[in-house]
Amino acid sequence: MKIGLIGAQNSHSRHFCEVINKKRPWDDVTISYLYGEDDPAEAKRLCGDFGITACSDEDEVIQKSDAVIVTYRKGSAHYQPVMKALRAGKPVFNDKPFATDIGEAKEIIDLASERGIMLNGGSSLKGLSGLAAVKENITPGSTAVITFSADPESEYDGYWFYGCHAVEVCLTLFGLDYVSAQSFRNNNAVVTNIAYQDRLCVIATTPQLNKLAVSVSNSGKTVCYDIPMDYESAGPEEFVNMVKTGELPRSYEFYLKAVELTGKIIETAGL
After folding, report:
1. What's the sign of the alpha-carbon dihedral 61, 248, 125, 176?
2. What is the pLDDT of residues 65-78, one digit of tens each?
3. Strand ranges across the sheet with 143-149
4. What is the pLDDT, as a whole number, of residue 201?
5. Cis bond leading into 97, ω under 30°?
6. Which domains does the chain have, with CATH numbers?
7. pTM of this prediction?
């Protein structure tokens, strides 16, 4: 399987290349083509380091590849190449943020569903191995606090760029059936209360945080978890396994809810 990579500036581009082309967990899978005009210097380095062929545009990558990874830093730039790849019948990994517009997210999901094309993506943090133990401790009555980095002033679509990480961790731990979300901003810190029917998740983000931590409180007892950031292989493994098995790792509704919830945070915090 020859994979095409669209986007070079994002550090995830190198992560995918390191896992797939250098570690070689699959003998029959290689990132073979790259379009990286978002960072031509890094694109040249990636091609040299990992034996990848540079392409002149997104269309060439899509045409030559069996599957496509879209990893532009700006989520607002994902829609067009993702839709082109899906229309060409190619499985797609749509990196985080999945979208910055709920209408575009729905169009992506609808096209993949109608044509039966494999699609996944978003934040790789939802695949962190340390989250399983946290999820087991979340029961009716639980309150959890998730802390991670996000900058509402980021040049890459503001809060969307990193805020989506904590949002997808929340949905992974608590489920998709949240009832309401209300956010508050203090300087560049953003705090969000996400209410479920019988549980509460609080997301607190600041630009300075570089570790993911989750605390879970039940009946007066609080357990704190520092989550190991072993995310580099999570996205590549999930994508390749999806394409090979033809089985989606989660429902498409997850991605819609992630975009919806991130949008609510931005709206209610006035970001």
Report:
1. positive
2. 999 999 999 999 99
3. 180-186, 189-195, 200-206, 143-149, 213-218, 221-226
4. 98
5. yes
6. 2-122+232-249 (3.40.50.720), 125-230+262-269 (3.30.360.10)
7. 0.96
